[in-house]
Amino acid sequence: MVRLVPGAYLEYKAALVNECNKQGGLRLAQARALIKIDVNKTRKIYDFLIREGYITKA
Coiled coil located at which positions (predicted)? Predict the structure, then answer.
C-alpha cells in the first residue's frame, strides 16, 4: 500500500503510461527518473501498473 493523494497518483500514472507508450516499454530506472518521489513508492507504483497492464517492461 502506498500513501498518496489521488491527484498525485493519477499524475504519476499518466507520466509513466505516456513514457511507456513513447518508448514501447519502461524500466524501473526510467520510472525513478520520471517521478521524483521515494524510490520505494516508485517501485510499488511501477509494479502495480505492470501487474494491472497499464505499462510493460522494456
Answer: none
